[in-house]
Amino acid sequence: MLRIITQQADVIAELQRICDRTHDDQVLHKEATVREVLQAVKRQGNKAVLHYTAEFDNQTLKPEELRVTGSELDTAYQQVSQELLAAIRLACQQIEAFHRKRVPKSWVEFGDDDVVLGKRYNPVDCAGLYVPSGRSGYPSTVLMNAIPAKVAGVPRLVMVTPPGAGKAISPAVLVAAQEVGIQEIYRVGGAQAIAALAYGTETIPKVNVIAGPGNIYVTLAKKLVYGTVGIDCLAGPSEVLIIADETANPVHVATDMLAPAEHDPMAAAILLTTDAALAKNVQVAVERQLVDHPRRIDTEKAIAHYGLIVIVESLDAAAELANEFAPEHLELEIQDPWELLPKIRHAGAIFLGDSTPEAIGHYLAGPNHTLPTSGAARYASGLGVETFMKHSNIIQYSQSALQKVAGAIDILATAEGFPSHADSVRRRIQREE
Amino acid sequence: MLRIITQQADVIAELQRICDRTHDDQVLHKEATVREVLQAVKRQGNKAVLHYTAEFDNQTLKPEELRVTGSELDTAYQQVSQELLAAIRLACQQIEAFHRKRVPKSWVEFGDDDVVLGKRYNPVDCAGLYVPSGRSGYPSTVLMNAIPAKVAGVPRLVMVTPPGAGKAISPAVLVAAQEVGIQEIYRVGGAQAIAALAYGTETIPKVNVIAGPGNIYVTLAKKLVYGTVGIDCLAGPSEVLIIADETANPVHVATDMLAPAEHDPMAAAILLTTDAALAKNVQVAVERQLVDHPRRIDTEKAIAHYGLIVIVESLDAAAELANEFAPEHLELEIQDPWELLPKIRHAGAIFLGDSTPEAIGHYLAGPNHTLPTSGAARYASGLGVETFMKHSNIIQYSQSALQKVAGAIDILATAEGFPSHADSVRRRIQREE
Predict the structure, then answer these.
(1) Interval B139-190: pLDDT, tens
(2) Is A350 an 8 Å CB contact of chain B?
(3) HAMAP family, from UniProt (chains A, B) (predicted)?
(4) What's the rounded Cα separation, in Å, for the pair A259 and A257?
(5) B269 touches chain A (CB under 8 A)
(6) Which residues of B touch A337 (CB under 8 A)?
(7) Rounded to whole angstroms, how far apart are CA atoms A58 and A389?
(8) Is the dihedral angle over the CA atoms B320, B321, B326, B330 positive or is it negative?
(9) Domains in chain B, start-ordered, CATH in brackets?
(10) Which chain B residues in 313-342 lie under 8 Å from chain A, judged by CB atoms?
């Protein structure tokens, strides 16, 4: 049963517990396993990759079976329906259109005395895209990973995804990959996939950035390899926080709470509402919708452990609690969502009004669905074109411009005890040889 | 003696060794120490902070001495010269002017059927700024950390810096902090400072993002707390890579190679030149400049271990090697630096021409001096306003817009096995209660 508490109760502590669910001791235990997998793949390459694939995914592969073949790629198109292909193409189009807006562009500006300052943006050379496995694969995640990389101009895209029964990869995933121009796909998942992308193996190339959401093992592995490679963000188990008033539809709110929960037993679903009647109705609706839910066990587990309804005193109080939690997904199911919006500081994505369920953002509204979880929205953004780009500062001074600031640099460098810094300017000014 | 090798020799392996100097086994050993410090501070707060300050910085503090007092802040202004204050103010002005350019701005766009999409940018609530200690403190690092945070609009800035002899903090650092509006300063450095900012203690607040360069312990600590908080980038021991042709001045090149080296015995200095005579002259000039160098021992150590001159066949070959190395600082000391620039893909900052020594960027050209090192420029940018901001995706659909994409979402959600995702749209379209 989805719990209802009031703001007077220990709300902060409860929200903190749910937010920190991926930081607890059980997770630290998993970190040891992940560390072992990383070390093994770093040292033994393919051998370790295949070992853990057998152990965790129950699939015994030969090294030459790691890469998905051209004929598998071709066959995939015959295995998906025309309707699914059309839906994938619609999603592609909308996601690409959104990601093409406000792409960082190189610039230089010319100042006095021929000073030139600017930034040059470049894509990374090679990106690794992680696509988790699912009952039927997640083509949407392929698009959300690959399209920003493609828009960024990354020349080489490498995809990894765990093999299912019979070593197979979902045809929908293979079709989605080809729709965005990815041909290089390896059947490997979990921490061993992240390790392979970070360190490289005999078969799988070392990449510069690893992007994509995953379960707790994948998320821990990404955190640990950060520094060897770049990563998008720590996109762990999904979460939704809904702020609702008396105008909200309890059946819609309940469905939206079950949506992240059906992803993962560690997912979180929180409702903050000013309306006690709505709270009760959502509680009942969640129970009712769980009865026949095809993923009932996992979904119920998430709702039981990390589900919560809080009756709040005001929408402002709800906004403040939402900022504390910094949810991956925030839904504003209230009369005037635009009025509350300026009070929201921390959230991965914000969905306004009853006609905007989180699912629309998950599949095809355009913005990315790989978003910071577990409070990371306090400091991080979701996956985007910027994930695959970085800039170099550009500086050019002229002799006369250097002359004008030489005194100040000399004073600062001398104060900091850096004689060669001071000399590097002094010698140029004095034209010393 | 600074070694000279030719491109035919094992250049790739040598550059790799230098680039990876912070990833070797000795560093892994330090990681164990850092992990212990982090755990202790997380569990014991101030007690552990004070313990490690006594152990590593030789300063025995009481908890109430951690925070720099108002009277220390006041006194600092009387302890710095008017010239230094003027230089700090000039640097402030130029750094702020640069960082105010192209600051990310929130946007929304209105599409067909009343669809609204956009991004909202917000600063983090609280930023922690690390300023390493030095013989006389590093006021420049205060400015480079704090100004982007201030431009981003971060409401609370907390600075940490290790106490020197007599528990003192450099007056220049305290003045620079006040010039950019920082009043909250704690005398703590090293991994214990990073831990305090990441987890919070009885005295030091938990922040959302930690920025600033540091030695290998600080850099390792930042890497390990990433995920609990955000970080700017892994800005470890400094490095310069200079591409020079026969027009370069060997004395200037030599001085610019000593500049990072005088920072840290783990700093790196590399020259790639097409001109064998220049190589020899730089080698001699480095030797000569080292003779009376006030930081000779550390500087010589860096040059001996991580200094290198490579004679290359062409400037294009040099650009390709530079991309492989992805240096923190890249100087183009060649006839036409703008011609080679488009071939440079990976570098933290690029300095063009003989009148642009790295020192000018270090102090006051405007762009940030906290930049990715050890190859991180392959995927990361330097510290900037973006370090302290993040965005939320904004989505609002109308009932009629939802209706048009409902079929596609239903197909995708069903293909991925997510019934509640499908239901969340279906129930809204059918106006089901």
Answers:
(1) 999 999 999 999 999 999 999 999 999 999 999 999 999 999 999 999 999 9
(2) yes
(3) HisD
(4) 5
(5) no
(6) 396
(7) 36
(8) negative
(9) 4-25+237-378 (3.40.50.1980), 45-231 (3.40.50.1980), 397-429 (no CATH)
(10) 330, 337, 341
